[in-house]
Amino acid sequence: MNRQDINDDDLQQLLQEQPPKPDADTKARHMAAAMAAFAAQQSAEKKSTVLQGFLERLRLTRDTNHHGDKSMNNTMNNNGFDNRPFWQKPALISGIAASSLAVLAGLTFMQNLMINSDQQELATRIAEQSLRKSVPLNVQEPANAIISEDKKILADMTIAEDAVEYQEMEAAVAVERKEQTKLAAQKMDMSVVQKMKSEAQPMALSAPAPMVEETIVTQPPQEFRNRFEDFKENTVIAASENPVSTFSIDVDTASYSFVRRMLNNGQLPEKDAVRSEEMINYFDYAYPLPKDRKTPFATYTSVMDSPWKAGNKLIHIGIQGYQLATSDIPQSNLVFLLDVSGSMDEPSKLPLVKQSMSLLLDTLKPDDTISIVVYAGAAGTVLEPTKAKEKNKILAALNNLQAGGSTAGAEGIALAYQLAEANFNAKGVNRIILATDGDFNVGQTGDEQLQDFVERKREKGIYLSVLGFGQGNYQDEMMQTLAQNGNGTAAYIDTLSEAQKVLVTEATSNLFPIAKDVKIQVEFNPNTVKEYRLIGYETRALNREDFSNDKVDAGEIGAGQRVTAIYEITPVGAESGLLENSRYQKENKPDIGKNGEYAFLRLRYKLPSETQSKLIETPIEKNVLLEAHAGYQQEVNFSIAVAGFAQLLRGSNYAGNFTYDKVIELAQANKGKDEFGYRTEFVQLVRKAKIAKEL
Fold first, then answer.
1. Locate the VWFA domain: which residues (predicted)?
2. Mean per-residue pLDDT pooled into runs of 10, the chain (695 residues)
């Protein structure tokens, strides 16, 4: 390198000049190297040595060419000045290093300040949003967002020679940021919870209490958590081995409307969602009404050929309840128990609940009493017992409800029963109407515990009906348990028109019972029936001895309600049976007598105010003249079309050669008057099921 002489003035001017500012890449490299060296110092002694070497290089008085006097002399001219180029001079290098360290320290301080500020702001936003919407806190996503930004910055600053240190530093930064963000959000969340708890007031049954929404960390509602009771389809039974079939009646309709919703969405329902008896009993069959209130039931039986298996026959049983006159309808003490938890915050849930309850108000007498209890993270009374004539007050309480929080369903049920007991009407109907998606996730949530509680209250004359809403986390099994043990009905409300059907058109049958603990027992004649199978009622089966035991609970029938049951039988001598003949049992011969019977029907029930049951008995003859009742044949045929459809949806092993097209044909021919269009809608659902099956 050639030496260049400079005068004193030039030298002084050069030394007074500020060292050039490092560009962005230079600053990034310096900061990354320093942070990597610092992390290495804490993890291993070797990395500590690297850091010390790095700092030694940045020492202000460091001369990078110090190898003895000879070397030093080679760099000095005769006047004692350093003749090296300016970029190799220690003073300039030291100035650049000092500037770099200052920039590095400033950037590090500002970055830490910004991160802390962002974390505090993040925690505040999360807490405020939780208060407004009562949603579970979740800091994982924001933390991941910060870490992703850090990764981007670190990636831009990466240099090849420090790759290992950068990886270790990145992991350490990610863990630290995640913990800091989580801690900040938790501190903010705890302060909010403490504040809300300190402001909460004790709830009283005699006056409205505001809803207390606890900001607690819970699991968010999960989609596709619909829960139905798992049951196996009734099988074929040999009449010679077990001639008696016993079950509790069922007038619920929840299965049909849930199936309808699934089909309208273009999906086939899961098989456990299809309960054949609820599909059949959804429709209003025009069975003749009983004439005498002292005997509140009329029973009708008929026999016809099976449309899905040649050689078999169907025994159709129709039971019609007595219809109360308007003047005979008792007063009502109703408690609306409404789920306002976060899972109900959907258009098909809480908004539809409000509309449904509003429709019910129009069917009540002015002196009927209405109370409203709501539950989410906690339960509270939002409307004290109020006469139905104060409709505006009741509607205002309904319209003010908002969804949010977890689901303390058991606590809400307990509070509703307390309110019903406090206003018990000994001469009227005392009923709780629970509107929910059934997702109880706080408090006493076991089916058996709730069942025991509801049974005890049932004995005191307070009944429980359940209205299900929504899907995704629809807990049908829970609601069936509550309704069956609460002497109530279970319906599923998927549309406003369904609410009109359940709570207006069929209000008297769903609210006012004419009989309780209704049981059916059919004894088959082994001389005429080889095999039999009950279609549906799998979840309602009873032991044979339960039929005469008045301590055993069974179903409830409301005013004007009807019940339909269908058996498929294989007559003796027919080749259509599924069971092999017994080698050692005596073979029965067909009964060719004109008055031969296929079976004998027994119906047992209690009047609402009585504890001892009454018995109705009817023979089921082989040759029944269906024409004896005008229009009855049409009702029977349509119910059989529905039964066949239910079997196809479940993928039944006993559907034979029945198809969706045959269901449509049979239903179309027997729609009848169809005043409300339910049967026309049924035909459309069958078509949708056929399309969904083919996809």
1. 333-511
2. 55 59 59 60 49 49 45 47 52 57 58 49 47 38 39 41 47 51 43 37 37 37 66 95 96 95 94 96 93 86 95 96 90 94 89 95 94 86 94 94 76 90 94 85 60 88 93 82 90 95 93 95 96 97 97 94 97 90 68 73 94 95 65 93 98 95 97 94 97 88
In the chain the first and final C-alpha atoms are separated, in Å, by 84
Phi, psi of 503 (to 5 degrees): -100, -10
Residue type, 103: V
Could you identify the residue written with the tokens 């209130």? 293
| Burial grade of 404 (CB within 10 A; 0-12, 13-18, 19 or more) | buried
CA angle 424, 426, 430 (to 5 degrees): 50
CA distance 152 to 692: 48
DSSP H/E element including 336: strand 332-339
CB 352 within 8 A of CB 493: yes
* Residues 261, 469: Cα–Cα separation, whole Å: 11
* Cα angle 127, 131, 132; round to 5: 120
Task: Tokens 């996503």: give the residue.
Answer: 141
Q: Model-level pTM?
A: 0.68
Contact 360, 507 (CB under 8 A): yes
For the chain, the maximum distance between any two Cα atoms, rounded to a whole number of angstroms, is: 145
Distance CA 146, CA 165 (A): 21
Give dist(CA 316, CA 674) in Å, integer: 21
- For residue 647, what pLDDT is reported? 98
Closest CA to 258 of 538, 469, 436: 469
What does CATH list as the number for 330-511?
3.40.50.410
Question: Rounded to the nearest 5 degrees, what angle is found at the Cα of 534, between the Cα atoms of 531 and 536?
Answer: 155
What are the φ and ψ backbone dihedral angles of 323, each rounded to 5 degrees? -95, 125
Q: What is the 3-state secondary structure (H, E, C) of 553-579?
A: CCEEEECCCEEEEEEEEEECCCCCCCC
Residues 6+ apart with CB under 8 A from 126: 137, 138, 139, 142, 185, 188, 189
- Report whether 433 contacts 507 (CB < 8 A): no
Q: Where are the alpha helices (DSSP H) in 75-139?
A: 90-133
Q: Please give the structure tokens belonging to residue 334.
A: 């109703």
The residues with which 337 forms a beta bridge, in sequence order, are: 373, 434
Residue 215: how many other CB atoms lie within 10 Å: 22
Rounded CA-CA distance 301/601 in Å is 9
| CATH of segment(s) 237-325+513-574+593-694 | 2.60.40.1230
User: How is the chain split into domains, by residue range?
Assistant: 8-187, 237-325+513-574+593-694, 330-511
For 445, other C-beta atoms within 10 Å of its C-beta total 16
169, two tokens: 């530093």
